[in-house]
Design brief:
Heat Shock Protein 90; five-stranded antiparallel sheet; globular
Length: about 140
C-alpha cells in the first residue's frame, strides 16, 4: 500500500479561535503538497467548521470539532470534520433553496463546499455525533 502524502488529525475547540487554527492547519498542511488546492481546502474547512459552530452541539460551551486531512500522493484530498451532532435531532446539512440568491444573508457555506468539492456527504455517528466528509480533486478536469 502506498504511503499517504498527507495524514493529519487534530481536535479544536469549537470557537472562532478554533476555526482560525483549523484553517491555518489546513493551509500549512495542504499548501506544500498541492499549493493550487490550499485556498479551496482552507475555504471548505472554514465553512464546514463555521456550520458546526452554528448548527451543532459542538458550538455549545466545551464543544469541539475534529479535523482529519488525508490523501495518497496521487490524490484526491479527503477532509473529514467530526462534530457533536445536530442541535435538533435528525437535522442534517443541506443546501437551502435560495442560498445563492442576491438577497440571501447567510446559507452559502454548503453551496461553496458543493462548488469546490468533487463530493461531500454527512454521516451521523451514533446518537451524538456527525461526520462531514469532503473530497477535493488534486487535478482539475479539463473543461473542453
Amino acid at each position: 500500500m502506498a504511503a499517504l502524502a498527507l495524514d493529519i488529525s487534530e481536535r479544536f475547540a469549537c470557537t472562532a479561535g478554533g476555526l482560525r487554527r483549523a484553517r491555518a492547519l489546513t493551509r500549512s498542511a495542504v499548501g506544500p503538497v498541492w499549493a493550487a488546492l490550499a485556498d479551496d481546502a482552507e475555504l471548505c474547512v472554514g465553512e464546514a467548521f463555521g456550520n458546526a459552530l452554528r448548527h451543532t452541539r459542538s458550538g455549545r460551551d466545551g464543544g469541539d470539532v475534529g479535523l482529519h486531512l488525508y490523501a495518497l500522493p496521487c490524490g484526491p484530498l479527503y477532509i473529514d470534520l467530526s462534530d457533536d451532532g445536530p442541535l435538533r435531532p435528525g437535522d442534517r446539512p443541506a443546501i437551502r433553496p435560495g442560498a445563492g440568491g442576491l438577497e440571501a444573508e447567510s446559507g452559502r457555506g454548503l453551496l461553496l463546499i458543493e462548488s469546490l468539492t468533487a463530493h461531500w456527504f454527512y454521516v451521523p455517528t451514533g446518537p451524538a455525533g456527525g461526520l462531514l466528509c469532503l473530497t477535493l480533486l488534486t487535478t482539475r478536469p479539463s473543461l473542453r
